[in-house]
Amino acid sequence: MSHGTHRQRWTLRTRLIGSALIAAVVASVCVLPAAHAQRSHAGTTLTLWAPYSGPDRNAFISIVDGFNKSQNAVAVNYDQQSETGYGDKLTAALAAGKGPNIWIGDNVQMSTWANQKVLSPMEKYIKASKILTPKNFAPKVWGITKFGGHQYSMPLDALPMTMYYNKKVFRAAKLNPNKPPTTTQKSFLATAKKLTKGSNQYGFFVPSAWPIFLLYYSTLTQFGGKPFNVKTKTATFNNAAGLNTLKALYNLVYKNKVSPANVGGTDPDMSGVATGRMAMVVDGPWQLGHPSIKALGADAGVAPFPQIGPKKGVAFYSHYLVSYSKNSAAENKAAVKFAEYFNKHSLLIGKAGDVPMYKPVLASSALKKDKKLAAIGSMMKYASPAAPTFQKYVDGPLFNDVVIPALQGKLEPSAFKSKLDAAAQKVTQTAQS
């Protein structure tokens, strides 16, 4: 999956599917794209929209085709063009009352759709499933499938922040290229310093643009923080954990000097690790297929997100399947059947960079044979969702007003707390409006 696709999908997720946007788009509903051919002999046919693109797009199509071939009771009619302009198309279709039977989003979008009453509560349909049960998923994965006392979504796959490193640079520094420093805060910083050689080579990379969102949220969990309290509808990133997170990232650039500042361009982390200018970088698992990583070949190292804070932690975005409120009971049961099949066969999507969330697949010998995927999947036992399941949560004030300016060197540490307080007030006001 491309860098640009994820930047649009995740950083703009609440802006694309907000209720205000629905009102704006209703006046000019777009023409809905043609759908993938369906199997006419199926008892129940479901239309499906999804935002997958790149390698995971092909993997997803393989899963859909496999499901359709595996039985005759349900046919999934996958619209392969729905990924183009996904947010706008879906918003327009739902506003016009012409949404697909099932579609894919994340937990923030799910809460928005549930609040707008365009989703079917699925608990009674999932109840009999032996696959879609809490024991088969990490607690934090299963927990964000619910909103307002109902289960509105079914988990599919996750995208936790991942570390990529250049083994050649490790060997040159007489470091073990097969044991990157991902287990303690002390070893990470010591290694990053050892791998830094002035302005020619840096041990790590702290971006001041994408994917700073995932980097910040991942580090926040390591300091024991959360960005938002759903029960009180208040931002919490201005507490000690949030302040320490911002200081830690800032210090890597301006105090420890193990990261360059304000590096621009397209995927500078990937090109930097490929050339050896940056020994370690972090980005999403979709970068497994990036040309720079492929060019490194056997020298491309993949590892869990490093420990920048005092404990293990990583943030993830995710894909969940939801069902339209206009569906019949038969269609909702068919949706569960497809979600079950997806999870049982999610190793296919895993090899494309999207980590399975289904524990039996995560623990399978087939997945463990793929060392890179196994390293990424190992994080799911302690991973946390990057954003809360709350329809009015927005993170623009946090990143645009504080985190990005700080990492660009435009804010002094003495101003961090007051800026975080002001940003938290804006986020809270929006949440409570």
Topology:
Elements lengths: L2 H9 L1 H4 L2 H8 L17 E6 L5 H16 L3 E5 L7 H10 L6 E4 L1 H9 L7 H4 L12 H5 L2 E2 L2 E2 L1 E8 L1 E5 H6 L12 H10 L17 H11 L5 E2 L4 E2 L4 H15 L13 H8 L4 E4 L7 H6 L3 E5 L9 E10 L5 H16 L2 H4 L4 E2 L2 H4 L2 H4 L2 H7 L5 E3 L10 H12 L8 H17 L1
Parallel strand pairs: 1-2, 1-3, 12-14
Antiparallel strand pairs: 3-12, 4-5, 6-12, 6-13, 7-10, 7-11, 8-9
Task: Summarize the main sheet.
Answer: 7 strands, mixed
Gyration radius from CA atoms, angstroms: 22 Å
> How many discrete domains?
2
Helix content: 40-55%
Q: What fold name goes in the CATH topology slot of the largest domain?
A: D-Maltodextrin-Binding Protein, domain 2
Parts with pLDDT < 50 across at least 5 consecutive residues: 1-40
Distance between the termini: 35 Å
Structural class: alpha+beta
**Global geometry:** globular
Strand runs, count? 14
CATH C-level category of the largest domain = Alpha Beta
Oligomer status: single chain
CATH superfamily caption of the largest domain:
Periplasmic binding protein-like II
- Average pLDDT figure: 90
Number of helices: 21
Describe this structure in words.
With 433 residues, the chain is an alpha+beta fold. The protein has two domains: 3-159 and 317-380, Periplasmic binding protein-like II (D-Maltodextrin-Binding Protein, domain 2); 162-315 and 391-432, D-Maltodextrin-Binding Protein, domain 2 (3-Layer(aba) Sandwich). Helix content is 43%, strand content 14%. The protein has 21 helices and 14 strands. The strands form four sheets. Strands 1, 2, 3, 6, 12, 13 and 14 form a seven-stranded mixed beta sheet that branches. A three-stranded antiparallel beta sheet has the order 10-7-11. Strand 4 (146-147) and strand 5 (150-151) form a beta hairpin. The longest helix is centred in the C-terminal third of the chain and has 17 residues, at 416-432. The chain is globular, with a radius of gyration of 22 Å.
